[in-house]
Specification:
By secondary structure, this protein is α+β, with helices and mostly antiparallel strands. It is about 35% helix and about 30% strand.
Length: about 375
């Protein structure tokens, strides 16, 4: 049985140990030690990484009660090896995981909801058994940070079965023996196998960054510690860029964005009105003909192009509008005299196209060059 040094000291990064076993598996090596500070994956937290005897430890897992250090090279059984845990990764995970305990404990105390799902990756996701309002979430976040600022001790121990039986604690599993209880006094008591910070002040900051309804309950996404700081730094940088672009102070960005979007909407409306006016002018300028009309337009709003076709149809047997697209042209063809749905097969075969629609209008795309399209419309089958 490997001695779990991380249970006694979560801040232990360096240690020495004896290699008790080493075996090859899928091009990597599973190394067992007589003692280790490497935490194996568990409780929703990833396994530690680092080096062992100068060899990179790519992951740490627990399998059948054995802690396996997944190394990129073998270590001789019986040898002594110096271990170095990636302290930055471990401390980040400790900040995030301890922050999660605080949030989950507060939600449980205030609303009675259970944490039914937890995953720690780039951010922490927490699934709760009931819904929370925006006001509830803001309250939880403030109380969580107040617990951080209070710098409360975080303790971990293995109570006896008799003591455990009378203890109230959070747990996703029905545990009866070798249960490790992590306590943040006044905030949370929870069964957990992972390393945690020694005092809540080490977390620094807790920020809930997203919330959504999930399976009848609530899913929150949160950041804590350095991860929360880096996210805040990134967001401040983004806000600074937007502030410069809009010539607005950062505490007035929402109002500035609303003004900019309003101006953009007005400009779009003016452009659309102008495009419809241009389409009407283009249709009015078309001379009446018993044949078909073929128009080539630069890329435009499909609604504008349909309007152009509808306005042109009374002046001819059929009107087609073509706009460039990758591989050829998109088309809209309209007619009040020709059953276009029936003629679509012939039209597409002639133009290398695909499309269809109603007897009075079809839409699609084609690969024929402009000259071939114009030639086809000059002899368009008007019935």
């Amino acid at each position: 049985m490997t001695e779990r040094l991380f249970d006694a000291d979560s801040h232990l990064w360096s240690f020495t140990a004896r290699v008790t076993a080493c075996r090859e598996a899928d091009g990597k090596y599973e190394v067992e030690l007589d003692r280790t500070a490497f935490f194996p994956e568990g409780g929703g937290q990833c396994g530690d990484r680092g080096t062992l005897g100068g060899v990179r430890v790519l992951d740490t897992v627990e399998r059948g009660g054995a802690i396996l250090h997944i190394c990129e090279a073998p270590l001789p059984a019986g040898s002594e090896a110096a271990g170095e845990v990636d302290g930055a990764l471990r401390f980040r995970n400790m900040q995030m995981h301890s922050g999660e305990h605080i949030v989950s404990g507060i939600v449980h105390r205030l609303f009675g909801y259970d944490n039914v799902g937890f995953h720690l990756a780039e951010q922490v996701t927490l699934d709760f058994s009931g819904e929370l309002s925006a006001e509830d979430i803001a309250r939880v976040e403030l109380l969580a940070n107040e617990a951080v600022w209070a710098n409360i001790p975080v303790t971990a121990r293995y109570p006896s079965p008799e003591e455990l039986a009378g203890l109230e604690y959070r747990s996703k599993l029905d545990l009866t023996e070798n249960v490790r209880i992590v306590t943040i006094e006044g905030v949370d008591v929870c069964a957990c196998c992972a390393p945690h910070v020694s005092r809540t002040g080490e977390i620094g900051l807790i920020k809930i960054v997203d919330a959504m309804r999930h399976r009848g309950g609530m899913r929150l996404a949160m950041l804590a510690g350095k991860a929360a700081y880096l996210d805040y730094k990134r967001m401040c940088g983004q806000a600074g860029e937007v502030s410069a672009m809009l010539s607005a102070p950062r505490d007035a960005l929402a109002a500035a964005v609303r003004r900019a979007l309003g101006a953009l909407d007005e400009t779009r409306k003016q452009l659309t009105d102008a495009a419809f006016a241009a389409a009407r002018a283009r249709a009015e300028a078309l001379p009446p003909t018993d044949g078909a009309v073929c128009l080539f337009e630069s890329e435009a709003d499909p609604a504008v192009l349909r309007e152009l076709v509808n306005l042109a149809v009374p002046k001819c047997a059929a009107a087609g509008v073509f706009t460039p697209c990758e591989g050829g042209f998109r088309y809209i063809i309209g007619s009040a005299r020709v059953d276009l749905r029936a003629a679509a097969k012939t039209i597409n075969a002639a133009l290398g196209g695909r499309g269809g629609g109603q007897p009075t209008m079809i839409q699609g795309s084609c690969s024929a060059p402009e000259a071939d399209i114009r030639a086809f419309f000059e002899s368009f089958p008007v019935g």
